[in-house]
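Why do we bother with a discrete structure alphabet at all? Because it lets us treat a fold like text: something you can write down, compare, and reason about line by line. To make this less abstract, here is a complete entry for GTPase Obg. Read it the way you would read a sentence in a foreign language you are learning: slowly, and without expecting to understand everything at once.
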Amino acid sequence: MFIDKVRIHVKGGDGGAGCMSFRREAHVPKGGPDGGDGGHGGNVVLEADASLSSLIEYRFKHHFKAERGTHGKGSRMHGATGEDLVLKVPVGTVVREYFEDTRETGELIADLTHDGERVVVAEGGTGGRGNIHFVTSTRRAPAFAELGEPAQEGWIELEMKLMADAALVGMPSAGKSSLIAKMSAARPKIADYPFTTLVPNLGVARSGDLSFVVADIPGLIEGAHEGRGLGHEFLRHIERTALIVHVVDLTGDWEGRDPLSDYEIINRELALYADELAARPRIVVANKTDVAGTEEACERLAKRVREDSVAAADGDEFAPSPVDPKLYRVSALTGEGVDGLKAAIARKVNELREAAREAAATEVQYGQVWEHRRAERDKRFSVTPLGGGVFRVTGPQVERMVVQTDWENEEAIAFLQHRLKRLGVEAALERAGAVDGDEIRIVGRAFEFESARTSEDAFRELDL
Ligand SMILES: Nc1nc2c(ncn2[C@@H]2O[C@H](COP(=O)(O)OP(=O)(O)OP(=O)(O)O)[C@@H](O)[C@H]2O)c(=O)[nH]1
Ligand SMILES: [Mg+2]
């Protein structure tokens, strides 16, 4: 079975708690604070690996968790950092956020196109700081430490797209599988009924010093873009194929179709599936030249390809875009014309690779962009008045701070209030109408609101 899309849940390791401890030695009755920091939790990292060809490993196991950091200890001993969890995925894996509740995919996280490329999909939590960090001129003996930060977690969607340089596209029974068999060592099933090919076949073709990967996808029919036939599932595989090799059956096959209208149907299906596919560079092939009586259709098609290539060159962005005004006439049965076609594909693929390399040099780092957006989104929060002087505050970072606070400890709570203020929660509460004494709820906790004027002095010394 061909597995190409999975959803997995990833969770970084939680940070270890910071330690609250004081030096105790025989001759020092009550020493200074010496609680060490908690260790950072490990990250969950995806790594593209050229030796993998499917996402099958993620079919049955869906939950992945990195190691947590251990807690800090006395005598300034820091907790150990948790190990990263590295998940290997095939080159060509596209990673997106996925929201389980709404079943929607979100932001693009990464497009792993090179062997060894990595992206962090769930960051481990930072370790909590030990009480040695909270000493100030007025607080010599801070009796609190931070708890570890909970790690990031969430669902992501992994999708593997076929990494072929060129894809053979056309109506069922056009001879795509026969052609890939002639061009490469691939040995797909070939038969005289439509939809023989159910999953894409890949082959490596060589022409002189050049080689390229060619894919043979299941036949497309009219309406494929909206799910008719089998093609739709596979159209997305060619979204990233640089070159389309459009195979037209000169015989019109069993239905006695007109080759020229077949050519138009496929062009239309590609364009309707995605705008980018409308203008994707393509080479047009007329197959089955060995069959008698196909010459006239072949000439008509050749003329049409020439016209389309002129229109595309003139900048008609929705014109089907043969990059080559030439119609390649072949017989996948006898092999006639196949070498010439291979040479043309190899040349074009090579050109497109060069162009892609140049584009990649200036490419944005998806991972970083996503990290940044997520960090920004994490900081957002909202205040909802629940009536009767009660307000609820929700938001990823605000909630994380609350979870990280040791509620048994008043100083830790004061420190939390200080952090909330810095994030702007206090101001937002005031804007929402909160007054001293109102109840503020964040995750499972409730506390009393104290306005800036009264709390400022109390927190100033905590400024770190
Ligand atoms: N005479 C002749 N027959 C061909 C040629 N190429 C393919 N065929 C025949 O056409 C039929 C379909 O060929 P396939 O290669 O399976 O076609 P396909 O495009 O892969 O079809 P699907 O996988 O169903 O989309 C088979 O019976 C082939 O033997 C050719 O150049 N000449
Ligand atoms: Mg086939």
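What the structure line is telling us, in plain words: Residues 176-177, 196-197, 216 surround magnesium ion (ligand 2) (CB under 6 Å). Confidence is low (pLDDT under 50) at residues 454-464.
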